[in-house]
Design brief:
The protein has 157 residues and is an alpha+beta fold. It is built from five helices and seven strands.
Length: 157
Amino acid sequence: MTAAETVTLRRAAAADADLVFAWRNDPFVLARGSTQRSVGAEEHRAWFAASLASAARQLWIASVGAAPAGLVRFDRGPADAAVISVYLIERYCGRGLGVIVIKEASRLAFAAWPVEKIVAFVRTDNDGARRAFLRAGFAPESVENTPDAHAALVLRR
């Protein structure tokens, strides 16, 4: 990784709404996401505003160098867990940057919340995401309410 590929995370802000909207509807991101469903502008604006206001959700913008590269979302699950969702846009995939994003975001979530584990529900056909979570220290584990066609990977504090 070069200096230009330094990965940073910052909390998402209202000014990021349009950027995240574009990412959510990007064909590369959609093809790998859990819902594989595009969203309209009004639906996105409502979701984004509610997400920023929620104490049970964290949104982080991942950047590579100075360029925004993806989103990390955490949702508080049961009392002892948070659920992570991560995507990088296509040009930043395949270089190990996702592993760095997952590790740093998980560190921030553990610092912010008194949870014992972070759970990733990864589609079983998304080998790249599965490898990234495993390389970031997550391990396969049986988790209640794992969505169909997904595997649960868990990182413990």
